[in-house]
Structures are given as C-alpha cells and as structure tokens.
Amino acid sequence: MCAIAGIFDLYHQADINPLLLQRMTDVQRHRGPDQSGMYREAGVGLGHRRLSIIDLNGGQQPVFNEDHSIAVVYNGEIYNFAALMRELQQFGHTFRTHCDTEVIVHAWEQWGPRCVEHFRGMFAFALWDRRQRSLFLARDRLGVKPLHYAVLNNGHLIFASEIKALLTHDELSRELDPCAIEDYFAYGYIPDPRTVFKQIRKLEPGHALLIRHGSPLASPRRYWEVPFTPTTIVSQEQAADELLARLREAVRIRMVADVPLGAFLSGGVDSSAVVAMMAQMSSTPVNTCSIAFDDAQFDESAYALAVAERYRTCHHRQYMQQHEVALIDQLAQLYDEPFADSSALPTYRVCQLARQYVTVALSGDGGDENLAGYRRYRWHLHEERWRSMLPLRLRRPLFGMMARCYPKADWAPRPLRAKSTLQALARDTVSAYCDGISIMKEDLRAQLFSPAFKRRLHGYQAVEVLQRHAAAAPTEHPLSLVQYLDLKTYLCGDILTKVDRASMAHGLEVRSPLLDHQLVEWLSGLPPELKLRGATGKYVFKQALTPYLPQSLLHRKKMGFSVPLADWLRGPARDRLVRSMRSPVIADSTIFNQETIQRLLQQHFSGLRDHSAALWSLLMFESFLRQLQDSPGQILQQQAA
C-alpha cells in the first residue's frame, strides 16, 4: 500500500512549489514507509510514498511510459496485472518492470479513461497525460482505497490519499460543512462524497474524474455499479459450490506478495472462511491474528482459536484492555475527520499486532453486506411486510399516533421496543431504514443541535444520503435495496475507512477477498432467499462452508467486532468523557445544546439509558475539534449563526 498526493494548476502552467508537494507527501509517510518519489513539470506535481509489496526493487513511483509523457502515482493492488501485461504486450506495449503500477500507464495509452474497467483490485491513482494536458483521478469499485481532492481559490486542484495531506496547504479553507456534521451524528461517519470540510470532497467508489487543463472542472463519472442482475441458479447446492469456487479464486489472487502474508481471524464466519481457504492453498502455516476481550459478551477469541487449531495456523492473540480508551486522541488524528465507530479501537490493535508478523493481511470484510449477515436486515424485512399492508398516507398518522403514546424502552430486547417499531411503520422504507441504523435518532439530533446550527442546515437531513442512493438503485427488492444502500454508504464510509486508516497507521496492507468486484457482482444477483432465510443470514454461504468450519461457529449468534462501550464510558473513560463535554471547543463551536449533553451524561451514568453511541460520537467530535484548533496555521472557521 502507498500514499499519493499532488497539485494541478487548472488554468495556468505555473511552477509547483516543491516544498509544499514534499510536505503533502511526507505527512502520509505512515502509509508508505519504504520509499518516496516526486515528479514536477509546469502546472503539475505528483508525490508518492511507497510500501513495497510486489517487485520490491522495481516499483518506485511515479512510473512513466517510454517517453515520459505519461506519469502515474498509485495506491493499491491490481490482482490481474500479469494477465493485463500480457494483453498489452500483444498490442505492442513494452514493460520495464514487473510491477502492477506500470500496467496503469499502458492501459491508459490503450484504453484511455476506460482503463479502469479492465482493473481487478483495489486502487486509487492519479495519472498525468502531458500530450492531452489532463489529469485523471480514479478510485476502485468498492472504495477500498481512499482519494480526497479540493479546488482552491487560486485555481489549483489538490489531491491526496488522506485529508491531513490537503490540510498542509495554506490556501485550503478549514470551514466545516454543517451537512457533514448532521450526517456524522446520524451515521457515525461522513458518507461520500462529503468530508467534514466544506472545500474537500471524497472521490466516490467506482468513480473517475478527468480534468483537462483550461476547462471547467467536470463532475466525477461513475464507471461501475453493483448490478443486482438475477443470477441463473439451478439449485441451492450448485449456488453453494460456485460461491466457494469464486471465493477460493478471490483468495488465491490476493495471496500473491513478495513479503510475509497472513490474515485477521476474528472468529466470525467471514474471516474464518478466508483463513480456511488460505490454509488449503498455502504450503506453510498461515499467520493469523485476533483480539480478545475480558468481557465474555464481546469475546470471540475462543472461536478464532478453534479455527486456528483446525487449520494449524501460526496464531497470535492479544487482549484489549479497558485503558485502551487512551487511544481516543490518536484515533481522531488518524481519521482526520470525526469517526465514531468504536470498533476502530480493536481494529487499530489487531493491525498493530499483525504488522509484527506480516506486511499483508487478508480480511473478511464485505461478507455481511454481500450475503445479508446483519441482524438489522431481518428486522427490516419484518417491518416491510407490515408496511406493505397499508399505504403510507394511512400508516403515517395511525402508527405515528400509536408511537407517541407508547413509552420508550431502549433498554428492552428488540421485540419489546414497540415504540421503535411503531415509529418505523409510520415511515417510508428508506426513512425507516435510516432511523434504524442511526447512532443518534432524528429527534435526539434535533435536541442536541443548537438553534443557530439548525439554521445553518437549511432543512437538510441525513436521510437524504440514503434517498439519493435509493433513487439510483438497480433493484426494488426490500432486502437487496438495503444491501445496496449499505454497499454505497456504510461499507466504504465506515468499514473500509476504519480498516484503511488503522492498517496504514502501521504500514500494513489489508486485502478483502469478499470484496472482489467479480464476486460482488455475482453475489448481488443471487436470489435473496439464499442470503437470508428465516432468521439465518448468509444462508447459502454457511451451507457451502459446512465441510470447512464447525457448526458451533457457523450457527452461533452474531457478535460483531465491538467493544463494551457502555461500561467503558461509565468506568475508565468517565472522567475523560466529562472533561471533553465541558471542553471550551464544544461550547465555542455553537453547534450543541449544552442542556441536552448534560442530560445524556446523567441518564447514561445512572443506567437509566444507554447513550454510549451518542456520547462516543460526541467524544470523538470534541477530540477532532480540539486537534483542529490546536494545529499550527489551522483555524477553526465557523459560519455566522
């Protein structure tokens, strides 16, 4: 894995400041500790930090074509690069290295902007074409690798793998985006293409941006979509066999590396499946790593150990301690914008553990989204059956009134939370799903935000993110629709962001076989009843894995990779939480209603309510604001109320 950075003068051909470009590149050194490279010519500058994985001696970047008219800086892995190299050689292209980066250069010469359609892998790259005076930015189909960009008032476009590189530029505004803040407190992350900074954008997954010198900036172009085209299946057995064959191939091509390779092993179905496939294809014991907890409700390490023993892996386990909340400020600095997924804590530690033994680790990310593994999918389908019985114009007043009369019972098991169910039945499909996945509900956000901040939102609501994607969805099936929404938002905005920043902080590359785009396309077309049958998610996957994994693992209750957050915030993190909520940056931000924050604290500490998700999001936001304010030359700018 690597880091990229660059500057492109949209309208002139002025010299690019080499010190600025070096600073943008080197602030991302953690992503590429092995080598640094830079290229400048009139009007453009490209920077690169390299983590050497393939062709250790020949892969330094930028990489050029024969006459140096094309240059590329790239972060990622193209797994079909050898086949593409042979294909491009038949077209007459000559290669000087055995590195996948050079494939991008010649693929651009051969196919232009459509080159991305030929790549199988994870990538974010910037390609400069001197003849066309154009810059081409592209990001992989599922958003495994990040790419951020901003257009400055001086006519420069700047881009980088991480936001922190862009923040080194003095011309960049630090003004925060109110809509992004609303999104953050709803989802716990900021969905693409927004960032917390108004001037910075994320290039969305499956999108590319072609910028021509002297022309107005065009909108990014989508080059790939999750198809959800029905797959022809003869039988359940045939589907299971083909799924396994496709997974094996996705794992096999991700085991190519010139450095030590291993896997994360959480004890869940997905990572266990990946390890089982790896063990069958490896001539030496697979290195596996897992995190354990003292709290049995969150500890999956016994299941991980069972898989490790079955496949005789070289297994490494580390316990997560309660004092790990001390990582809060480190995580806030790592993610560059507010990020409230508390599983970032164990993810950081498992990446740190893995890097002691390997440079590349395979993960099970993507299984829940592709194969309907989340419990919320089951509840959503149950509610959809009720919603289908009455039109919205009748449901909204009827169930809305019933919900207002029913007492709130967040502490109760979900079947007894009738108020939440009634509220969901009073909404349309997308609004109900948004409310169900929100870490802070719409009514609570309305209480949390100050009147001045709500005026800055101009009526914007976080549900609009899902509504935008739902309007473009290639499927109407209720299960497939919410899977599509998660693939477009939660997967890339939360899961993949979490893993990318945590792994890159330790110079570790993570590869996700279940996010192979060809596998994703095929899985999207499977009949929904093969993914979720009754209360069983990943149904066909579990059937396929029966010979490889114990039944006790395949059919146990899903735990997820989480931490005992509610107890931590009442215990070892309590003092830190109270101090943070009294921090001047919270009050000075003019975003929050202080009475609501104090009520959340009191109710959580007393045990009356579990506000851990909301309080953790506030804690991480405070750390972000404080670090932004304290950074030299970076002043927190607030719009007038």
Give the distance, in angstroms, between the N- and C-terminal Cα atoms: 43 Å
Rg: 24 Å
Categorize the overall geometry: globular
Say what the CATH topology of the largest domain is.
Answer: Rossmann fold
Structural class: alpha+beta
- CATH class of the largest domain equals Alpha Beta
Q: In the residues, how many domains can be counted? A: 3
Helix share of residues? 40-55%
State the CATH superfamily name of the largest domain. Answer: HUPs
| Biggest beta sheet summary | 6 strands, antiparallel
The CATH architecture of the largest domain is: 3-Layer(aba) Sandwich
Number of strands: 19
Low-pLDDT segments, ≥5 res: 632-641
Trace the largest sheet across and list its strands. 2-3-1-9-8-10
Topology record:
Blueprint: E1 2-9, H1 18-26, E2 35-41, E3 44-50, E4 63-64, E5 70-78, H2 81-90, H3 100-111, E6 121-129, E7 134-139, E8 148-151, E9 156-160, H4 163-166, H5 178-187, E10 200-202, E11 207-212, E12 221-222, H6 236-253, E13 261-264, H7 269-281, E14 287-293, H8 301-310, E15 314-320, H9 328-335, H10 344-355, E16 360-362, H11 367-371, H12 375-387, H13 392-405, H14 418-425, H15 429-437, H16 442-448, H17 451-457, H18 463-471, H19 478-488, H20 490-504, E17 509-511, H21 517-524, H22 528-531, E18 532-533, E19 536-537, H23 539-545, H24 551-554, H25 565-570, H26 574-581, H27 584-588, H28 594-606, H29 612-630
Parallel strand pairs: 13-14, 13-16, 14-15, 16-17
Antiparallel strand pairs: 1-3, 1-9, 2-3, 4-5, 5-6, 6-7, 7-11, 8-9, 8-10, 11-12, 18-19
